[in-house]
Amino acid sequence: MFKNFLQISNTLLGAHFRQHSTIFALSSGQGKCGVAVIRVSGSCTELALKCVTGMSRMPPPRTAILRSIKHPVSQETLDKGLVLWFPAPRSFTGEDSCELHVHGGIAVVNSILDALASLPKLQLAEPGEFTRRAFYNGKLDLTEVEGLADLLQAETEIQRKQAFLQTQGALSKLYNKWKDNLVKSVAHIEAHIDFEETETIEEGVLDEVIVKVEELSKGIQQHLEDGRKGELLRTGVKTVILGEPNAGKSSLFNLLCQRPAAIVTPIEGTTRDILEVTLNIGGYPLVLTDTAGLRSKTDDVIEKEGISRAMQTYKDAELILLVVDSQKCGEPSAEHPSMNQMRHRQHLMKCLEYLNSFLTTSTSDTVLMAEYLRKALRQLGTKMDSFLSLFDPNTCNECSTDDFAIDNLNNQKALPPEPQVGNIEYKLKIVNPTKQRFEHLVTQLKWRLREGNGEAIYEIGVEDSGILAGLSQWDMTASLQTLQQMALKLGASTTILRERTLDNGRSISEVLVRKIPDDQNNIEVRVAVLGNADAGKSTLLGVLTQGSLDNGRGRARLNMFRHLHEIQSGRTSSISHEILGFNSNGQPINYSYSELITAEEICDSSTKLVTFLDLAGHKKYIRTTIQGLSGYSPHHAMLVISSTAGVVGMAHEHLAIAIALNVPFFIVITKIDLVSPTNTLQSLESFLKQVGSRRVPLVIKNLDDVITAGANQLTENVVPIFCVSSVSGEGLELLLKFLHVLPPGISATEKERLEQESPEFQIDENFKAGDVGQIIGGLLTKGVITEGMQMQIGPHKNGTFQNVMIKSIHRNRVPCRMVRAGQSAALCLNSYIPNLRNGMVLLKADSNAKGCLFFQASVSVLFHATAIYQGYQTTVHIGNIRQTAVVLGIFPSKCIHTNERASVLFKFKVHPEYVTVGQRLLFREGAAKGIGEITQVFPLLHKPESE
User: Fold this and answer.
1) How many distinct helices (H) and strands (E) make up the chain?
2) Which residue among 12, 382, 420, 501 is buried most deeply as judged by most CB within 10 Å?
3) What is the DSSP letter of 410?
């Protein structure tokens, strides 16, 4: 990342020095032509023009005069041509410029370019440098620069019209209008915040701002819902011709091309490969592709490859022409300019997200509303003012929290620029802020905590650009005190993660700010523990949660087991839950924290709670392990590998399942007191490269590595590796520090979205507790559940649901009144439910829910020894559902092989289940396994019992 920063810095410095030089180049097309235009721009343009024309004084601006063009050294006449003079600032680049209109012969042009190159302080322009200078000098904004590039590349009339509109500022005017409205709204809401108590501001200002933001939000939403027509006009509509062999595809292809581009014969399968041409049809750009004929069975290897390529081209198409044998069966608008860059769409979508957050925020929290408007305004500003986007607009999107990494501060002189979104904030110093400035700082902290779901990281002594400036000891102490006061105002705590002293003697600090959300007792992270049998999973959890080391014979794991046969065999066969807490100082809170401490007291004393799901490692219990990963939706997975055995057994299988379910993971190598982990680390490195090309192992050796790993955990490309011993305790401290900074697996925005949906509680456990009543345990995937809420539970054997009421709620063995999306809980129902089973769901009472036996899914087969055909039976995992299902149909072929994808119709074999479109599916039977997503559900139509 630092290397990229240096490359950008060198580019910027080079651009700065070139900006003050004089450049020249051929501005018309290359090759022979009637007239060639050579352009010169820069401070020495006047001197250069006098040298090559012999003029004693400059001609009138923007007036063409005929002059002889001479070599400035030999005074040889090279050509006669027209000369035009454009003094600054009324020129294309905003600098002194001139144009030489000469004969377009190659020798003539080269001789004049050589003559200009012989002059001091003149240099040949780089591609696009005239436009770049126009951008530097404010003659064009970024959207107009993009429009100019499109105008030069335009091949059709519609492309020309769209690009010309953009060069005239059509997009700029629209975006600037939105930007001006946002600036006014920010000013009004800031005034409302500052003068609300003095009563010197007019009434209704806040209401007026809300109305304007609603109008702006609707305008951006309509702009985004354009079907990508601007981008399609710019690049050409990708059109694919599909059909059976000999349906007439190639004949249609030749007709549209107006030439015999494809071979046409009566023989089926003549077209074997992809044929692609770019057409201009009525002024519209079209990228037309002819493909091989599609059929389900063929013994020709070459034809099979052609069909495979045709299907891949079909997936990337924007328009499909389906050709069927009959015997067998707009222009861009100046009023509404179209987006033609993906960059525009990304920034506007982020802007719209902030505007919608503004509209849904309570009017009593005006400070947060103002922050949302500032973020939206910044996104609109980025659309036209991004300096780096000039060099590569497609690679200059803002950093996100997911791909933001804090590398070792000792080994670099700068961090990446401060991300606009996420939970990381840079502050050079915050010493003695004014009251108004302090309120703004608190608002920023509130925003960062919201982005990090209760956690924020502050880099003190770092500029917004990422430069590590550092602070004196006095300024650092004062800044940390200010940050602590900001945190106290929000009810948060601060913890210094690390401090560094720079070469200049100044220091920088990295501080973790943590605030428990108002609706939670603590921040909760769920970690699934995976690994082969005898890897030491339960022993490691026993050491972490009990606080005492193992004796080398498995004493620490005894508290993890739930059944007698587990104690006797030493193998986990069921899913057990264990908790590990952390206080605001990062100190672990477990059962050794104080004498006779209970789980309830651990929850009450912790600001962050890590819930471990100890899953079975033996092959015999693989279905239980898959159910734990699928049903409990863990935020992270911890793969435990024994250094004595290495990467063997079910470790490959468990990791493949975690990747298929998109669960971020880290690795812990145990038993290093017995064997050096060197060989295991080497095998892990090659293993991770096989898992995916972007998996980068990071062996944790110190606290800096811990912070780096924690910041990158959700990116899914960096895999932290810890080497520990449950007997000697080596490496456990670093593992605990990592668990302390481990981020929750869901963003605040996603969490809010889920909470606004109708509640859906997946039942994983059920039992009856004496006189208390029916108890169910599980995970709330969507919505909010409160005490006394009327709900319905099911589906029963006939697909119906039964009405129930929530009597009480417990979380982490502590009573509570509410459970929110993403939280696990135990619920007590008001009545006994006959035939209650795991896999049922609890839904809102007024939802018209029905169970289903039949469902369709888009499936990818990860492995199968032969092929999957109709009638195949397999165990299907969908969330908390685990049931055998039968394959009733495969489309479009009759079977599906390894690494192939198809649409499959399933039927549950025993009883109906509640599934929804979009849910992830995982199936496994023996060595065969696959993943998919549900695309269609067929609800049961039950009849009344009287019938």
Assistant:
1) 24, 39
2) 382
3) G
- Are the CB atoms for 780 and 822 separated by under 8 Å? yes
- Per DSSP, the three-state class of 59 is coil
Q: Where are the domains of the chain?
A: 21-139, 170-228+341-392, 231-323, 424-429+440-514, 523-745, 751-844, 852-939
C-beta separation of 608 from 740 below 8 A: yes
Q: Does 878 or 618 have the greater pLDDT score?
A: 878
Q: Which CATH class is domain 424-429+440-514?
A: alpha beta
Q: DSSP 3-state assignment of 80?
A: strand
| C-alpha to C-alpha distance for 345 and 220, rounded to whole angstroms | 10
CA pair distance 157, 690, nearest whole angstrom: 49
Q: Kindly report the number of other CB atoms within 10 A of residue 434's CB atom.
A: 8
**What is the topology classification, in CATH, of domain 751-844?**
Elongation Factor Tu (Ef-tu); domain 3 (2.40.30)
**Domain boundaries 852-939, corresponding CATH code:** 2.40.30.10
- pLDDT above 90 (res 667): yes
Structure tokens at 96: 């002194």
Check residue 198 and give its pLDDT.
55
Count other Cβ atoms within 10 Å, centred on residue 46: 18
170-228+341-392: what CATH class? mainly alpha
pLDDT at residue 943 is higher than 60: no
Instruction: Supply angle C-alpha 582, 584, 585, rounded to 5.
Output: 90
> What digits encode the pLDDT tens for the residues 406-448?
344 444 567 777 777 778 889 988 998 888 888 888 888 888 8
Sort 452 into a burial class: Cβ within 10 Å, 0-12 / 13-18 / 19+.
Answer: buried
Side by side, which strands form the sheet with 275-281?
275-281, 284-290, 237-243, 319-323
8 A C-beta contact, residue 64 and residue 84: yes
Q: What is 21-139's CATH superfamily? A: Probable tRNA modification gtpase trme; domain 1 (3.30.1360.120)
Decide whether 231-323 matches 523-745 in CATH topology.
yes
Q: How confident is the model over 844-856, as pLDDT tens digits?
A: 887 788 899 999 9
**Which residues lie across from 240 on neighbouring strands?**
289, 320
On the question of pLDDT at 300 being above 50, the answer is yes
The residues, ordered by sequence, that sit 6+ positions from 785 with a Cβ below 8 Å of its Cβ are 759, 761, 791, 806, 809, 818, 819, 825, 827, 842
Question: Residue 522 in contact with residue 454, Cβ under 8 Å?
Answer: no
Q: How many CB atoms lie within 10 A of CB 675?
A: 15
Find the mean pLDDT for residues 12-32.
69
* φ/ψ (deg, to 5) at 721: -125, 125
Instruction: Give the span between the Cα atoms of 888 and 862, in whole angstroms.
Output: 20
> What DSSP string describes 839-906?
T-EEEETT-----EEEEEEEEEEEE-SS-EETT-EEEEEETTEEEEEEEEEEESSSEE-TT-EEEEEE
Structure-model confidence comparison of residues 455 and 724, the more confident one: 724
Helix H, strand E, coil C: the string for 654-718 is: HHHHHHHCCCCEEEEEECCCCCCCHHHHHHHHHHHHHHCCCCEEEECCCHHHHHHHHHHHHHCCE
Q: Domain 523-745 is of which CATH architecture?
A: 3-Layer(aba) Sandwich (3.40)
pLDDT tens digits for range 498-518? 888 888 889 999 998 988 665
Enter the tokens of residue 472.
Answer: 């004196």
Mean pLDDT of 566-585: 68
Reported as a single tens digit per residue, the pLDDT across 165-194 is: 655 656 667 777 777 788 788 777 777 776
Is the whole model's pTM more than 0.70, yes or no? no
Which pLDDT score is estimated for 383?
43
> What would the pLDDT profile of 669-704 be if each residue is shown by its tens digit?
999 998 888 888 888 887 777 655 467 888 998 888
Q: Kindly report, residue by residue over 317-330, the tens digit of the pLDDT.
A: 778 888 887 666 55
Please list the residues that pair with 842 across neighbouring strands: 761, 793
Overall CATH class of domain 231-323:
alpha beta
